[in-house]
Write a structure and sequence with these properties.
The chain is mainly beta and 131 residues long. The protein has 1 helix and 9 strands, in the order αβββββββββ. An 8-stranded antiparallel beta barrel has the order 1-2-3-5-6-7-8-9. A hairpin with a 2-residue loop joins strand 2 and strand 3. The longest helix is centred in the first third of the chain and has 19 residues.
Length: 131
């Protein structure tokens, strides 16, 4: 009986944790950069904010390669505003070696990225959910 009770408690605890996960969590495929490369970004909680790390890199043909930026945070300090809107964070663009003050908008399996450096703004495109 004790084992059944512990299993039930564990199941409820896991279910609550999953229900509280932010919908933006997961792996996202970026758009191709100025060099034709793209990557997979693992997005998750980093303390009280959301961050994303480059976990895989691909060239223009889709072949995976080891990038010097793998393991680097590409998104950090992003905060959820609710309703699929995120702001207050930064996004690093490896191809331009620039960090942008950014906003993200989540719609289903699409994540739109926009960012600015001073008054110069850039559309980071729409990333697609990998998982």
């Amino acid at each position: 009986m004790k084992n059944i009770l512990m299993a039930a408690v564990a199941t409820v605890a896991l279910g609550v944790g999953a229900a509280q996960a932010d919908p933006v969590h997961g792996t996202w495929q970026t758009v191709k950069d100025d060099n034709g490369n793209y990557g997979y970004i693992d997005v998750k909680d980093c303390g009280s904010t959301i961050c994303g790390t480059l976990v895989k890199s691909f060239d223009n043909s889709g072949a995976e390669f080891k990038s010097e930026n793998q393991g680097r945070k590409i998104i950090w300090n992003m905060k959820s505003n609710g309703g699929g809107a995120y702001s207050g964070g930064k996004v690093y663009s490896p191809d331009r070696d620039k960090t942008y003050s950014s906003k993200m908008t989540l719609k289903g399996n699409n994540l739109n990225i926009k960012g600015c450096v001073l008054v110069i703004c850039r559309d980071g495109g729409t990333w697609k959910r990998v998982n």
